[in-house]
Amino acid sequence: MSAAICWFRRDLRLADNPALSAAAHQGRPVIPVYIHAPEEAGDWAPGAASDWWLHHSLTALSNALADCGLTLIIRRGETLSTLESLIQETGAEAVHWNRLYDPALIERDKRIKQSLQARGLTVHSHNAALLHEPWTIKTGTGGDYKAFTPFWRACRRHAEPAAPTPTPALTAATPTPASTALASLNLLPTSDWTGGLQATWQPGEAGAHQRLQAFLDDAIAVYESGRDRPAVEGTSRLSPHLHTGEIGPRQVWQAIQTQLARSNPTTQAGLLESAERFLSEIGWREFAHHVLFHHPDFPDYPLNARFADFPWQDDPGDRLLTTWQRGETGIPLVDAGMRELYHTGWMHNRVRMVVGSFLVKNLRLPWQAGEAWFWDTLVDADLASNSLGWQWVAGSGADAAPYFRVFNPVRQGERFDAEGTYVARWIPALNRLPAKYRQAPWEAPSAALSAAGITLGVDYPHPMVDLKASRQAALAAFAQIKKPD
Fold first, then answer.
1. Which residues are catalytic?
2. Which residues does residue 33 pair with via DSSP β-bridges, in sequence order?
3. Which of 42, 348, 373, 428 would disulfide-bridge 104, Cβ 3.0–4.6 Å?
4. H or E element in which residue 391 lies
5. How far apart are CA 432 and CA 274, in angstroms?
6. Number of domains in the chain
7. Phi, psi (5° rounding) for residue 125?
8. Helix, strand, or coil here: 226?
């Protein structure tokens, strides 16, 4: 029986993997391959944190396939020619992969499919990453959605997502094609800054399911009340696993439904509320892909065209941007978030909104600068979600926050980190300061600062901007582009 190639991309799992199941159909030998060609993503080749994750995720996938008697073939080079070489070496007659939705990769995959089909191969792409394909959810007039709530309602009117499928029975193709060593891809940094990532994450399919189970055991029941508090493990932290396809949204969906079915009737109402809120976050991820598919320039250009003329502040030498990146702004909640990001490759979503608002509105720097920094430092750097998040906070995107909504990081900290626990965790210099002053140490009496051993400007920076004055400057800048709709 002729072999089939399963081309792994961002679907690094065995269970509920439609391309793998199709390749293995009727016991056909499978050639699993990963092709490293980051340049084919155009301007959005993965960043350093994503590369670190990919190295470890590929290691986990390779081990899982080995347990099934298969070898993950790793190749590096232009994808089409690499596939053609592999087909010639093995005599494979079919190629399967799961779809990606980044604009440059959509165009690449179309060209590959057309070329291979022209050679007489059976070529199929599948959906492993989304509950609904971006083109299947339409407005009443057949267009795309610009607001999340009606989009998610339309999704919920569709049939329930299909049940996830188990790992298929796998048969290895012989002989095994040659493979390059994973280390030769140079995904790991030459200077080791990844200690915090290693301590925080377990990339791979097994790690994804452990993370999901921990969320179901400990956090889902209080997700509605805990999701906005950065000091507690109140969210799923599944985003990097979903991005790399170590777990799929159908699997998450089914796990939530199973949890609801098994719940105690006396607590089911509260659990249902939390579960619905969490599933809407899965919906927000779907919405991000919907917007990106219909607006392929979304990562680079504002969806609301008038923001193209926004008067951003000059930043000679990137002084303001670098201070923000380093978490040295003198605004504790902002600095805590930026330091969490650099240490763990992740940041709590509430804090993402705060640090984003501070960059775009208080510093009046372009949202694209923040988007690029997140792209390089986040382990869950996803083109659709990252673009949607930054355009949301800038006020220029789909279902965006109004531009005049400027998050006050002090008030946000007082509301969602009332004891200053999160701030103290990431800014140890402030941990001896009484909680009521941790969100705004410049307001603390001299005696309190002295007792805590803090000299502002030495142990912790003075605020780089005045929050009130910079907010007013942002609103004045917005007024320059404001036009009647």
1. 281, 284, 312, 349, 367, 390
2. 7, 73
3. 42
4. helix 383-394
5. 35
6. 3
7. -110, 155
8. helix
